[in-house]
Amino acid sequence: MHDDLMNTALAARTAALAMQDLPSSVKDGALERIAAALELNAESIEQENARDMERGEAAGLAGPLMKRLCFDRARILQTVEGVRGLIRLPDPVGQTRMARRLDAGLDLYRVVCPIGVIGVIFESRPDALVQISTLCLKSGNAVLLKGGSEAAGTNRILAEIIAEACIGTGVPAGWIGLMESREDVSRLLGMDDCVDLLVPRGSNAFVRYIMDNTRIPVLGHADGICHTYVDDKADLAMAVRVCVDAKTQYVAVCNATETILVHRAIAFTAVPELAAALRAAGVQIFGDDAVCALIGCPPVEDWHTEYLDYKVSMRIVDSLDEAIAHINRFGSRHTDAILTADAETARRFLARVDSGNVFWNCSTRFSDGFRYGFGAEVGVSTSKIHARGPVGLEGLMTYKYKLLGHGDIVSDFSSGSRTFRHEELEGPCPV
Amino acid sequence: MHDDLMNTALAARTAALAMQDLPSSVKDGALERIAAALELNAESIEQENARDMERGEAAGLAGPLMKRLCFDRARILQTVEGVRGLIRLPDPVGQTRMARRLDAGLDLYRVVCPIGVIGVIFESRPDALVQISTLCLKSGNAVLLKGGSEAAGTNRILAEIIAEACIGTGVPAGWIGLMESREDVSRLLGMDDCVDLLVPRGSNAFVRYIMDNTRIPVLGHADGICHTYVDDKADLAMAVRVCVDAKTQYVAVCNATETILVHRAIAFTAVPELAAALRAAGVQIFGDDAVCALIGCPPVEDWHTEYLDYKVSMRIVDSLDEAIAHINRFGSRHTDAILTADAETARRFLARVDSGNVFWNCSTRFSDGFRYGFGAEVGVSTSKIHARGPVGLEGLMTYKYKLLGHGDIVSDFSSGSRTFRHEELEGPCPV
Predict the structure, then answer these.
(1) Would you state the pLDDT for residue A2?
(2) Is B104 on the interface with A (CB under 8 A)?
(3) Residues B322-348: what's their mean pLDDT?
(4) What is the pLDDT of residue B124?
């Protein structure tokens, strides 16, 4: 069944093999051409996007969706800046991560290489198309893109501009493929022969749907149920400042705190103070029985809730271990913070909370690839396999072992005429 | 539904959290106790194993299965040696892999930590139980074990000895759980809430069944269809030596060569010479039309075949790129070798063959964790995600980001009153 979709996928797989040893200069040259082409065609992109926005408005698309769909001049230029930033990052491909002499003339190298074909599935935001496809190019991966139908016009012109900008640069044709029809999503999810990794970008429900309907490994996260635990050894003024930031600095994001846990020993003072500051910032509080009794608030419905809003759950716990148990039970392994002046308490919390990001005396809002200094962000992973926490370019990389010999055979080692030395080597793999 | 299996799984999850910060001395002390207990109880283990062997013989178990089931004194002592070797390896937990100052007083660390609960499913070989459970203990992971029913007695006594040896050492009870009933396998495969990674050990069909029937990440490989490509620039004497070793040094293993590809320019000389040496070693050859015509052999049925026997497929290719295309199409991404005197040809082969292990001028039989000097082997992975090739202790590790602050909030950075510095730090994470 070689229809359009299959041809696009096969072309990506073929391109991916040639991209395994594409020189950095070729990739960076193509990225510069992409950046220039996006600037040059900014007006056409804006026009296509305006048409998508008109259609969206006519179809009664919700406000937040319309906002994410918008790709105006400012956002285009910001995206172009992102591409130029990517050019400045070192090429991860070909880096030697281990070098070992097994015996004289038999040298083993672990070398970083691209994963192959990355499938990207995103809702609305057209900047995701540019961001992920250029991350794939920099990392030597081919990419299959499937955007939301509401942004079809914008996505099509962006994919065309990017593909055309690469012609003549040495990047193999077919490295970027756009899928457009609705059935393409479920077929892409079934292409585990052809696609090595999926990167979904969109709402929690969307990412969970992807995770639940494919055997291809998925890089990303669905829920972001983050906690801040105020220990009995916490500096209360600091706790108030950090909790307000963690909850309100930007409520609609995955690393905003959704639940505040407070140690019983300080609850009588701390809960009313925290509540006053949070309410002053416009936050509605939902508590367990003890919190409700202390500050007069409605009860929590469900400790699993991700509000993404000016709402927060609050619970009083008897001990550090109860806080840890609550987080490991109800959290989403994303980001959780402790506020305490005691180093041993912090150590235990950081060790035992089973999340990708565990923070001491700071806001959960810091868990982000750009704040971590990763330069470019693929996404935040709540998986414990492959990549965890904010993921930079390395999330799109794997490695292979290269063994360089001179006719070496295993019989010589099993017979005892040669023995393994396993000496560490210096320097990169020579081929 | 809290039956035995669920209780075992929940106990493992609870233990896993406590194991996150278990001191190395506690783990190594427990490993030494395990080694001593296995030695001390060697006779009882042998007796249980003899009973399993009797039952197996009565049930008409095939020869190779009986051989794998056997756990006699020599194998027990070899396994104990493996445990002592593990003690000597450095503890991977807590190693700092990245340290960065985001701004004054706000330091980020990427720290290696255990994955959590590892599910191990194995056929016959009781040594797999000891090997993987001690690897899990060293790496701070809890383990759920499900062995084959043919080794039920041996598995039960081994799991009991290991669990009892750890009592009083500081390792939390419940860290090792044995599952025994047949229905337990399918339930274990469905426990994606509780089990973080599955390590299957057994036949190809068995591993494929596991991979096809779970959403839990699987570390391992099903097929091992390895290739050796004899380039037109190959030293023919070396090619003969290496091909014979790669095929015959041990035929029943995943890294034995199953297909030999020969460049057309040298085929007229090379194919008969290779054939003569392979036949002298007892190997039956199956060829494409050209090979059949040259040496008079039966035709290949299927390039996907993993013989695991004194049989090999042989094909003549027109070019390096045809060899690469054949391997990427029919191989299993395990181990593939090129024999050539030309460095650029080798470079292209090593870059473009999409396998975990790519070898130049040596036998495919070298791809093995012990030969690579990894000290302990979890298995060989043909996945491109998480771990690839032979996997040592690090395959059982993940990492988390620890951010240590002094009340830092994101608002200060978004308002511009503070800015990110991203300075690299020296030294390990202090908590």
Answers:
(1) 55
(2) no
(3) 96
(4) 72
A220 touches chain B (CB under 8 A): no
Mean pLDDT of the residues in chain A:
94
The ipTM is 0.92
Query: In the predicted model, what is the mean pLDDT of residues A35-53?
Result: 97
Measure in Å the smallest separation between the Cα of B91 and chain A Cα atoms: 15
CA distances from B284 to A411, B142, B425 (A): 20, 46, 60
Neighbours of B59 (CB within 10 A): 10
Alpha helices (H) in A177-235, listed in sequence order: 183-189, 204-212
pLDDT of residue B2: 55
Question: Which chain B residues have a beta carbon less than 8 Å from that of A361?
Answer: 404-408
Window A:110-139, CB contacts with B under 8 Å: 110, 113, 115-116
Is A1's pLDDT higher than 60? no
Q: Is the Cβ pair A115, B385 closer than 8 Å? A: yes
Q: B215: how many CB neighbours lie within 10 A of its CB?
A: 13
Whether B20 contacts B113, CB under 8 Å = yes
A281-284, long-range: CB within 8 Å, 24+ apart, which pairs?
A281/A244, A281/A247, A281/A248, A281/A310, A282/A248, A282/A310, A283/A244, A283/A247, A283/A248, A283/A310, A283/A311, A283/A312, A284/A310, A284/A311, A284/A312
Q: Minimal Cα distance from B343: which residue of A?
A: A431
Question: Do B400 and A241 lie within an 8 Å CB cutoff?
Answer: no
Q: Which pLDDT score, from 0 to 100, does residue A62 have?
A: 85
Burial zone of B45 (CB within 10 Å; 0-12 exposed, 13-18 middle, 19+ buried): buried
Mention every residue, 6+ apart, whose C-beta is less than 8 A from residue B124.
B65, B68, B69, B148, B150, B151, B202
pLDDT digits (tens, 9 = 90+) for B43-52: 999 999 999 9
Nearest to A362 among B246, B343, B405 (CB): B405
Average pLDDT score over residue span A142-159: 94
Residue of B113, B361, B414 with shortest CB distance to A407: B361
Q: Is the pTM of this model over 0.90?
A: yes
Q: Average pLDDT, stretch A367-378?
A: 89
Q: What is the pLDDT of residue B423?
A: 95
The percent of residues in chain A predicted with pLDDT above 70, rounded, is 100
CB < 8 Å to A354, chain B:
17, 20, 116
CB contact (8 A) between residue A400 and residue B357: yes
CB–CB contact A372 B102 (8 Å): yes
Residues of chain A with C-beta less than 8 angstroms from the C-beta of B343: 431
Domains in chain A (CATH in brackets) are 4-212 (3.40.605.10), 226-366 (3.40.309.10)
